[in-house]
Amino acid sequence: MEKIEVLCPSCSPKTPVSHIILKGTKELLQCDGCGAVHKEKKPKKVLVRVILSKGEKSIHARAMLSGTIRKDDELIIDDESTGEASLVRVTSIEVGDKRTDSASAEDIKTIWARGIDEAVVKFAISHRETTESIAMRVSGEREFVIGDKVEVNNRKLKIIRIKIRDGGFKSRKGVAIAAKDIKRIYADSGIKEPKRISRAGGERVVIKKRESVWSLKSKRTG
Predict the structure, then answer these.
(1) Among 140, 7, 6, 143, which residue's Cα sits nearest to residue 76?
(2) Are strands 28-31 and 37-39 parallel, antiparallel or unpaired?
(3) What's the distance, CA 209 to chain centroid?
């Protein structure tokens, strides 16, 4: 079922809204919002330049698009030069010398987008005085759930909170976030390190568990 965004004379005469194409080249459309049916010519497809960010790489592509394109839209970009198809999210739209949140495809100079068919998810693992960073490549649609354990590079990590792209943090247990929307995952390795207690005079006490007996071992720092 093909859809396009055009003006609806019944419920949205000024702002394009989603319509279902019912039949023919002289299009018969049905508004998704109010259900009204009216005739409208299908918007002409034009060749638009797309700069696509995939991980550390920027790819220059050209794609045939039509209708109104908005920031955060998810599009399938068929690169006319390579024939490769990618699922992307629009991050910015350039019309003339200005950036805008939406525009007709015919007016767009460049679309800036981020590939979301795959995502590199970064993990930050706290180790008391240091933070370790590791990453894994997954499908953009894979969900990570706060409170769940996940295996990364043969290590089991518990998800504590998630930073959202272009947003804040999520930390409520049970909340699921798709990889394509994740900036960083903060996780716990479950490994308990010896507790260090600083003392005056340059000494520090390291509390370690050996078998079933706790012992105190003093270390002098030089």
Answers:
(1) 140
(2) antiparallel
(3) 43
Domain spanning 46-115: CATH 2.40.30: yes
pLDDT in tens, 98-136: 999 999 899 999 999 998 888 889 999 987 778 899 999
Distance CA 138, CA 206 (A): 40
What is the reported pTM?
Answer: 0.59
* Residues belonging to the chain: 222
CB atoms within 10 A of CB 106: 13
Q: For residue 25, name the pLDDT band (cuts at 50, 70, 90).
A: low
Query: How far apart are alpha carbons 56 and 165 in whole angstroms?
Result: 16
Evaluated on CA atoms 75, 79, 83, 88, the torsion sign reads: negative
Q: What is the pLDDT of residues 68-93, one digit of tens each?
A: 898 999 888 876 666 677 889 999 99
Cα end-to-end span (Å), the chain: 74
Structure tokens at 185: 């995952």
CA–CA separation, 184 and 135 (whole Å): 9
| Eight-state DSSP code of residue 109 | S
